[in-house]
Amino acid sequence: MGVDASGGHTRVLIVGSGPAGYTAAVYAARAGLEPVVIAGLVSGGQLMITTDVENYPGFPEGITGPDVMERFQKQAERFGTTVIAEDATEIDLSKRPFRVRTDSGVFTGDCLILATGASARWMGLESEERLQNRGVSACATCDGALFRDKPMAVVGGGDTAMEEALFLTRFATRVTVVHRRGELRASKIMQQRALDSEKIDFAWNSVVEEVLGDDSVSGVTLRNVLTGDRSELAVEAVFVAIGHQPNTELLAGQLDLDEAGYIATDGTSTRTSVEGVFACGDVMDPVYRQAVTAAGSGCMSAIDAERWLAEAGVA
Length: 315
Hints:
By secondary structure, this protein is of the alpha/beta class. The protein has seven helices and 17 strands. It has helices at 19-30, 65-78, 126-130, 140-143, 159-168, 188-196, 291-312; strands spanning 7-15, 36-38, 82-84, 90-92, 98-101, 106-114, 118-120, 136-137, 152-155, 175-178, 200-203, 206-212, 219-224, 230-233, 237-240, 244-246, 277-279. The strands form four sheets. Strands 1, 2, 3, 4, 5, 6 and 17 form a seven-stranded mixed β-sheet that branches. The radius of gyration is 21 Å and the shape is elongated.
C-alpha cells in the first residue's frame, strides 16, 4: 500500500481516532481493507480528558479514558490499520479519490469515514481547565456517579442542562442550576420537570466567575449579572452543559450539515450526502454522545463503506 506519514493511497481513509474512528478501523481492517486513520496529534477523542470510564461494557472495575483508547488503537493496528499521528488540515470531497492533507503529506482514499467528533463548549476559565477531571466535567452520564452524596452544580439553561440536572438528582444531595438569564431556554416540559424537582435549586441571572479548589472542586464563585454581587456556592462537582460544537470546520460547504452543524446522514445508515463518504460518532450524533454509541456507529460506517466499495467495484 505504501502509506506512511508523507502520504499515500488507501481504500478506506478514516479521519478521527476516538471510539468511532478506531472501531471503524477494526472492522475495515478485519475485512482486509487496510484502513488508514488520520488520528491527530492528540488522538483518542473526548475520552482522553476522561479520568475514569465506568460505563463502557467489559470493564467492571472501570478504566481510564487514555487506557481504553490505547487499547482501541492497538486492536486496530493488530489487524493492519496504519495510524498517522497528525491533524488533518484540509479535507477535499470534490472528487474521488477523496483527499486529506496533513502538515506532512496528502492521503487519498477511495472512500472516507469521518469520525472527527464534537467538542464540549467550556466557560473559558483557567480554574475550570485546571480542575477538569477533578470535579469539572461536561458529561453527567459519564461522571455523575463519581460524586455520589455530594452537592453539585450544572451550568446552562437549555434542554441538555435540564437533562443533566435531573440525571444528577439520582446521586447528588443538591443540584444547583446556574443560568445567566432569569428564565430557562429549555423546552417547557424539561423546564417543568426541573422546576418541580425537590432536589434542584436555581441561581438565576448568574455566571460562574471561578471554580474553587486546589486538588478538587470545593465550590464556585458566582456573579449576578444584574447586580454585580458575588457569592460562593459550595459544591464538589461542576457540570458544564452549554452545548457541544461538532468538529466540522474542514467540511463546511462540502456536504450536508444540520442546523447545529452536525453531519446529516441518510436514515439509519452512516451515509452522508456525498457518495462514498460516511460519518460516525459524535460528529453526527447530537443526542447520545457516549463512547459505546460512537463505537457502534463506527462499526456501522465500516460495514456501510465495505458494501459501498464492493458495489462500486473497488473492494
